[in-house]
Amino acid sequence: MALTLKRAVLSTIALWIIFAWGYTFLMVGLGQLFFPHQANGSVVRLGNRVIGARHVGQYFGNNPDYFWGRPSDTVSVATGKPQPYNAFASAPSNYGPTNATLVQDIRGRIHQYLRSTPGLKVSQIPVSLVESSGSGLDPDITVQSAMIQIPRIAEHTHLSQETLRKLVQTHILAPDLGVLGPRRINVLLLNRALYQTLHP
Fold first, then answer.
1. Is the pTM of this model over 0.85?
2. Of 6, 44, 51, 200, which is most buried with the most CB atoms under 10 A?
3. How confident is the model over 93-106, as a mean pLDDT?
4. Would you say 99 and 90 are in contact if contact means Cβ atoms under 8 Å apart?
């Protein structure tokens, strides 16, 4: 009986050391060795300053000088009030398609794009620019979503539309593994390049 108990205790301790500590340190070590950028949060820098993370969307305050990302319906954990791109409360609104609040939000976003870009038609606005993502932290937009914002940004920054189109083209990301998902653009990386163009 004592021998069996001793073996059980030693086995438990050995397995705890192997899987709770050994496996963890092995995975962390392999991550740092082979994927250091990703393992450390895929941070994005502007010079020596960290300005965000590549895989977490960022709110640009609807600043007309920059590209806008997907809407975010995340809220403040403390107050319950809207706080776009709050990584501590990643979630969608969970409103159904007939919910009056959702319909009002989408109409408001459509109106914002129509008001900010003269000549833009409702049919030209991608759905992803007026409907929030499931996580509320989506960092990417479609190529079309970036292209329709160019006239507004050109008007406010005084950059030519051709310059902005070239900037967008150089930031198009291919589908994952060449086939998964559409071509897309990381909003933070694009806006960093735009900032560097405006402030050489």
1. no
2. 44
3. 88
4. no
